[in-house]
Amino acid sequence: MDLLRPSRRRTLLSEAVYVLLNIAMAMVILGVVLAINNPFPAFGLILLSKWRVLAVRPQYWAAHIIANAIDLILGFSFVIFLYAASGTLALQIVLTMLYIGWLLILKPSSKRQWVVLQAAIGVFFGTSALMYVSYGWWASVTVIGMWTIGYAAARHVLTAYKEPHFALLSLIWALVMAEIGWMTYHWNFAYHVLGAGKLQLSQAAVIVMLLSFLAERSYSSYHRHKIVKFSEVLLPLLLTVSSIGLLLTIFNTISV
Questions:
Q1: Model's pTM, two decimal places?
Q2: How many domains does the chain have?
């Protein structure tokens, strides 16, 4: 037992250090955003926080970067949202607290349902951030960005299901996301959110979130039964079709 106590103390100490470092990083990023009117130093801090991704042999860099893609997407989105919320300090603090929650609670979770939620958050916030900044860019940049988000999210989910053909399926979903990115680049709508300042809710993010939810529910049904059971995807299908229909016919009133 005496041998276990020092180990336990070291574990508690390492956990405390991990928590403090993550909180400190989020707070430092907020400070940088408040002090510097340029997002690149904050982006640099996000990249610096992932130093362990490259602390392996070069042949493993690509695999580690892909495995951490959702976390990177969330980090970059966090920085973009902080700048979008400039002038609204309360909202910036709320965003920082949410990012801390991501780092400490959701990100370390490895159960399938939490992994799916991680991917869903990555899709929604990644698409929202991309659409917020890309309306003045070339369409090809937006398409590539959506392709990257789609591939990272699909791979994140499919590996949790231990899908043997995850690479091919991820590429297919990335192509779907890229096509949506091309269409929404030319039809980019967003909705004002009360108390959010310049931060807006992207229509494209809502659409891809709904489609991603339908795709995941369909794959989950196939994973269990080796066939997509219509009874299991009927409600997700109705929700997706009706919600997208409402967005495209009724709520297309405010453009970014």
A1: 0.88
A2: 1
Whether 255 is in a domain gets the answer no
pLDDT digits (tens, 9 = 90+) for 38-55: 889 999 999 888 877 776
DSSP string, 1-23: -TTHHHHHHHHHHHHHHHHHHHH
Is residue 256 in a domain?
Answer: no
Assess if residue 207 is contained within a domain. yes
Q: Are 99 and 78 contacting, i.e. CB atoms less than 8 angstroms apart?
A: yes
Q: 9: domain range?
A: 4-249
**Residue 254 lies inside a defined structural domain of this protein:** no
Minimal CA–CA distance to 73: which of 40, 122, 20? 122
Q: Which two tokens stand for residue 78?
A: 């966090």
Q: What is the mean pLDDT of residues 157-178?
A: 94
Helical spans, DSSP H, in 4-111: 4-35, 40-48, 61-67, 69-84, 89-101
